Amino acid sequence: MSIYSIADLHLDPLGEKPMDIFGENWINHEEKIINNWKDIVKEDDLVLIPGDISWGLKLEDVCKDLGKIEKLPGTKIISKGNHDYWWQTKNKLNSLNFKTIHFLHNDSYIYNDIGICGARGWPPKDSDEFNEHDEKVFNREVGRLELSINSINKNVSKKIVMLHYPPFNFKDQRPNEFVDVMKKYNIDICIYGHLHGEGHKYAVEGKIENISFYCVSSDYIDFSPIEVI
Predict the structure, then answer these.
(1) Diameter over CA atoms, the chain
(2) Which Pfam families match (predicted)?
(3) Residue 126: predicted pLDDT
């Protein structure tokens, strides 16, 4: 049993959102992801996908993309990204009746003795355009992370946080309030995505505050799921 992760699949059910604006490596990226996934992931593995799953705007459009993910090996945990406009209530998502997909939504998932939790996150407060509205959303997302962590069975051996946005400041790349919450609850691993192309320069990885951080944006990891446990 292994746990893998890859974010920012950016599947496109309508064929209207080419991602090669971020570089030629994005050409045929969906095919690359699917082929690499099949080569690496086994049926008893877990795959964490922290956001930006599909460009579809409506749930009925995204079902095509979710169906592709459903057919891939492994159990998949999906959390929300900033472009997942199709995201609905937990009950609505569960009503899709996918067998290998769990939607992480203010709750957690236990895999053997490992607790998986998370939130979308939000851009850091030192972002140039951060305003009063962002402050409210930022604080709400911090609260959602804490709510998700608190839903974990306390007997787990490890705790993993899934975020879409990096939990670091832009300008000095120091940990922000999301990391403060993770420290409070002794989180072991944090994975995040969102960064593409030139944005890779903002990626922060390694062990910080006793937490192992991984950037798993699909183009950052060459469109191939990486093993985190």
Answers:
(1) 46
(2) Metallophos
(3) 94
